[in-house]
Design brief:
The protein is α/β, with parallel strands linked by helices. It has a domain of 118 residues: 2-Layer Sandwich (Nucleotidyltransferase, domain 5). It is 32% helix and 25% strand. The protein contains eight helices and nine strands. The longest helix is centred in the middle third of the chain and has 18 residues. The protein starts with a strand and ends with a helix.
């Protein structure tokens, strides 16, 4: 029995599954708000699925990249639940989760500050300018994620599903599907958090 969730983007997702079968899942939109609701979402999810916390065998959390606050909330929640329930906690990249569907080639998350986080064939996980990413994309690549939605024009030539496509959401069921190759529940920022950048600028000034 696996509980999985991701709070790296503007849509926080959660899922409870058993032997690859989804027993229930949720998605809460709203920057930071979704992450803050993850415990309530998990409680309601388990209740509706008829699963007791003690039935869980594994917790899998999204490790980003994404919002600094969202990642901290999600990973801290995962570790706390794992400690309280005595079950292992693993981490799966949000970019990897977005690329689970067979039709997806490249994952692209809005990184703010005019950049996106991305990964795909021949593209290492990185923060990059959308126009620069466009130059790296394989021909007719299918690109998904909120970064692909926001920078649709800059990524002209790529196949980007409609804005309301579920492919743009890092559904937690995909994290559970990757549990066998999951790593430690450590955040993947891919660049320094804004707070660190501000401190560095102040120190330099």
């Amino acid at each position: 029995m696996i509980l999985s969730f991701d709070t790296a983007t503007d849509v926080a997702t959660a899922c409870v599954s058993s032997d690859g079968k989804v027993l229930g899942e949720t998605a809460s939109a709203g920057r930071s708000v979704g992450a803050q609701r993850v415990l309530d979402d998990v409680h309601g999810l388990l209740d509706r699925a008829g699963v007791a916390p003690g039935d869980l065998d594994l917790i899998v959390a999204g490790t980003g990249p994404g919002t600094f606050t969202g990642l901290r909330i999600g990973l801290a929640t995962a570790r706390a639940l794992g400690f309280a329930l005595g079950v292992p906690v693993r981490g799966v990249s949000t970019l990897d989760a977005l690329r689970v569907p067979d039709e997806v080639d490249v994952a692209c998350i809005d990184a703010r500050r005019g950049e996106v986080f991305c990964a795909g064939p021949g593209i290492d996980a990185q923060a990059i300018d959308p126009a620069a990413l466009a130059g790296l994309l394989p021909a007719a690549a299918t690109v998904v994620g909120d970064g692909a939605v926001r920078y649709r024009e800059e990524l002209a030539g790529a196949r980007i599903p409609p804005d309301d496509s579920p492919l743009h959401v890092p559904h937690a069921r995909h994290h559970a599907a990757l549990h066998a190759t999951a790593g430690p529940p450590e955040p993947r920022y891919l660049r320094a958090p804004d707070a660190d950048r501000s401190l560095a600028m102040k120190a330099a000034g």
